[in-house]
Write a structure and sequence with these properties.
Layout lengths: L3 E2 L6 E2 L2 E4 L11 H13 L4 E3 L8 H9 L8 E6 L21 H15 L4 E6 L8 H14 L2 E7 L3 H14 L4 E5 L13 H8 L2 E4 L22 H4 L1 H4 L4 H20 L3 H11 L5 E4 L4 H9 L7 H10 L16 H4 L21
Parallel strand pairs: 3-4, 3-10, 4-5, 5-6, 6-7, 7-8, 8-9, 9-10
Antiparallel strand pairs: 1-2
Length: 360
């Protein structure tokens, strides 16, 4: 595969990155089935593997580490820190001093990841999500120490809003810390929200972009058209993204129907059309594919060289306009200022106080 430089890191990566979220208990892939998928991806020219400590609560990292035995030096390996490492604790739940982006937690989490991965360094180490309780200066300080100690080669963010990416760049410059050099946002035909600010911001600062969910949680495989078996896996954990009665999901099904017709007209599969769309954006360096099976991997690899011309991209714009996300839940991050009512309301406001009047 043609190698691309990841932002200004100097690191060369393949345009497809093997995502390992489905390795371990979460995806039902044990070492026996997952290791051959890793080896097949490497043999096909992929040199970029992405995982996270929280995936299967460390199980994914362990499998990746075993799969890379003897091949570690040829692979760009990325993992993440932020979420609590306790089975049964939801991603949105914080565990005091055992989650987030603090020095205390990152210092411990990185050592655990290195041990599970069976390596003495991580190529790209991500803050998996923003942490409203931790000053970005604190996070950059500890990540800088990890880079300077040789345990981490470069640092990045995942699903950060544009304003926080910019703030982190300013703090790094002002304090002499390492800069975040990679951002990993969700991006697909059905979720184009990052086109408005995140991708332009990354271009402005020379930040490499590794996108995730190019198939929009499976919607762009066509599996959720017509009747489908409900109440399984991610559909249970994230009903807001799959409930067919919700307006956002109705809109997704309508869009996918039109995209299937467009794919048929262009002579490629819907999956290959979706992957080519993401790769067509000039800000995107690489995109994550997350196969559960060897058959899925082969199909995804077959689309690695598929391109689409401007006319087809224009047709896609007519189906889902630039910057639009059909279901807000697909963005996977809502600012705490919108979810915590205390941050939106002045406390102990006298009941006699009138804030808004309308004399018309």
């Amino acid at each position: 595969m043609e190698m691309r430089t990841l932002g200004r890191t100097g690191i060369k990566v393949s345009p497809l990155c093997l995502g390992a979220m489905m390795f371990g208990a979460w995806g039902g892939n044990d070492e026996t089935s997952a290791v051959p998928i890793v080896h097949a991806a490497l043999d096909a020219g992929i040199n970029f593997i992405d995982t996270a400590d929280v995936y299967s609560w460390g199980g994914s990292e362990q499998i990746v580490g075993k799969a890379l035995a003897g091949r570690r030096d040829d692979v760009v390996l990325a993992t993440k820190v932020h979420y609590p490492m306790q089975p049964g604790v939801g991603p949105g739940d914080a565990v005091p001093n055992r989650s987030g982006n603090s020095r205390r937690w990152i210092t411990r989490a990185v050592e655990d990841s290195l041990r599970r991965l069976g390596t003495d360094y991580i190529d790209i180490y991500y803050a998996h999500r923003p942490d409203p309780d931790t000053d970005i200066e604190e996070t950059l300080s500890v990540l800088t120490d990890l880079v300077r100690s040789g345990k981490v080669r470069a640092i990045g963010t995942s699903t950060f809003p544009a304003e926080q990416i910019v703030e982190a760049q300013w703090v790094a410059e002002r304090r002499g810390y390492e800069r975040f050099k990679v951002e990993q946002p969700p991006y697909s035909i059905l979720n184009r929200s990052v086109e408005a600010a995140v991708l332009p911001t990354c271009q402005r600062y020379g930040i490499g972009v590794l996108t995730w969910s190019p198939l929009s949680e499976g919607w762009l495989t066509g599996r959720y058209q017509g009747d489908f078996e409900r109440g399984k896996g991610r559909q249970i954990a994230h009903p807001q993204q799959f409930d067919p009665e919700l307006p956002g999901n109705i809109a997704k099904r309508e869009a996918v129907g039109k995209l299937i017709d467009l794919a048929n007209e262009t002579g490629c599969s819907l999956i290959h059309l979706a992957l080519a769309f993401v790769r067509a954006h000039p800000a995107v360096t690489s995109t994550i594919i997350g196969p559960r099976t060897m058959e899925q991997l082969k199909d995804l690899l077959a689309g690695a060289e598929v391109g689409i011309d401007a006319d087809v991209l224009d047709r896609i714009d007519e189906i889902v306009p630039p910057g639009v996300v059909l279901n807000a839940a697909d963005s996977h991050h809502t600012a705490v200022e919108l979810t915590d009512s205390v941050l939106r309301r002045r406390p102990n406001l006298p009941s006699s106080t009138v804030l808004v009047t309308d004399e018309r």
